[in-house]
Amino acid sequence: MEISLTEMEQAINFWRNRHPSTGEEQKLCAQANALAAPYAVMIMQHQRQLDVATLGPDAQAALESWRQLRPATGQAQVEALKG
Prior knowledge:
Elements: E1 2-4, H1 5-18, H2 30-44, E2 49-51, H3 57-69, H4 74-82
Antiparallel strand pairs: 1-2
Helix pairs in contact: 1-2, 1-3, 2-3
């Protein structure tokens, strides 16, 4: 399974909103931190997609949790409103 650059950014922002940066150094939460390095690599290498299997276990767990916790978007949200 692959994740897009946009989805990676959405996941990082989700975790940053859920667990804001802390301390004087504005340290990221564990989930956002686990996704930050692969996100940076995607940007530097101009990658639009990344195979999730290539990520470390912490990043994979952060993505899986994000997928389960994020609010419904797009068509799923429209269908939910039709109810």
